[in-house]
Design a protein that fits this description.
By secondary structure, the chain is an alpha/beta fold. It contains 5 helices and 6 strands; from the N terminus they run E-E-E-E-H-H-E-H-H-E-H.
Length: 168
């Protein structure tokens, strides 16, 4: 995280899929973490708890979960390699309510033989939901790995397909 003051702020919000931790530099969202997933994040002691830097993100996420928002308009600052950034950018072009497979995502980033590398970049996405890595599925249509766990991935896809959703 690099900003003028290098301070990292965090705030936890409650959502229909459980607690979600937001982290950022005071101006840009840097990380979204599923606290009810398999690996909750304990904010480091030097991070500053503050709700105000996340008012827009919290409001947009609430609208998303209410079915009133299909995309996000937030300042983002994900940290990653050039390849990861290309993959994350391509993820943002996957329409709400639709899915693609890893091979197709690899083609979209100009490297059709890199499905596994795309999968690794997808798994390293620091901004799930906003950068919709949950919309990527296996070539056979199966739900595959997701940092927040498959129940959360299933719930997000159900929400976007206008099905009732709940965590398993």
């Amino acid at each position: 995280m690099s900003s003028a003051n290098d301070t990292c702020y965090w705030h936890q919000i409650e959502t229909p899929i459980g607690a979600v931790l937001l982290a950022g530099d005071g101006e840009r969202l840097v990380r979204i973490h599923f606290q009810s997933g398999p690996r909750p994040l304990r904010p480091p002691a030097h991070w500053v708890a503050a709700a105000h830097p996340f008012a827009a993100a919290a409001a947009q996420l609430a609208a998303y979960f209410a079915g009133q928002r299909r995309g996000f308009d937030l300042p983002l600052a994900p940290a990653g390699t050039e390849f990861q950034l290309r993959v994350w950018h391509a993820l943002c072009a996957v329409p709400y309510g639709e899915t693609i497979n890893y091979g197709e995502l690899a083609r979209r980033v100009g490297n059709p033989r890199a499905a596994r590398a795309v999968g690794l970049a997808n798994g390293a996405n620091p901004l799930p939901i906003v950068v919709p890595c949950h919309r990527v599925i296996g070539a056979n249509g199966a739900l595959t790995g997701f940092g927040g766990g498959l129940p959360i991935k299933r719930a997000l896809l159900a929400l976007e397909s206008r099905q009732s959703f709940a965590l398993d």
